[in-house]
Amino acid sequence: MTEHEITITVYRWAGSWGPFKVNIPCGECSLTKDVIQDTIDTDLEGIPVKLVMRDWLSEWWKPLMKGGFHAPIVIVEDKIVSQGRALNRGLLTEAVIEAYAKKAPVTENIVFGKESCPHCKIAKESLDRAGVNYKYHDVVKQPRALYEMLARVKPIVGPKTPVTVPQIWLDEKYIGGADQLSKNLEMDVPPNPDRGQCSLSPTR
After folding, report:
1. Residue 113 CA to chain centroid, in angstroms?
2. What is the pLDDT of residues 175-196, one digit of tens each?
3. CATH superfamily of 110-185
4. What is the domain partition of the chain in residue ranges?
5. Distance CA 110, CA 152 (A)
6. Rounded Cα–Cα distance for residues 51 and 48 (Å)
């Protein structure tokens, strides 16, 4: 098993139980498998993922214990993501990234932001002046970045606290927003007056 590997288990309409046997292939099960494989190859590139296919009728009680009763049943780690229809790849991407964020800590300097955010621009300019190398992820243009930011920040700030941008990690530690950079960079960074409001939401 690869370190931090995430397991996706699919229970497809297939198999046998006692005198019962599935003879007709499930089109949505096949489609779901194709969606998962393409999502792994594209949206989830770089994340170690293991895909396991199971025959639902032969092991119907296993997903049932988790609340799954209608194939195709898609489970990420121990969480049911979808059942009874072809898979929405966005739900899969979000679930896999959330599970991966719990297993794999941040190991590089990262800034999550968006193009229209002036405080994201200030944060990047401050890091550039300080000579800090970092990776920037736009949470509006890159759905994967949004899923990862929320999965990593919400456990820190709490589920009811709005998540603003930018969100910054330096030296593998969570810093917060642009107004927290001053202490870490030992330089003046203009504070963000929108902290506590959700800057990902439309202006009211």
Report:
1. 16
2. 998 878 877 776 666 655 555 4
3. Glutaredoxin (3.40.30.10)
4. 6-103, 110-185
5. 12
6. 10
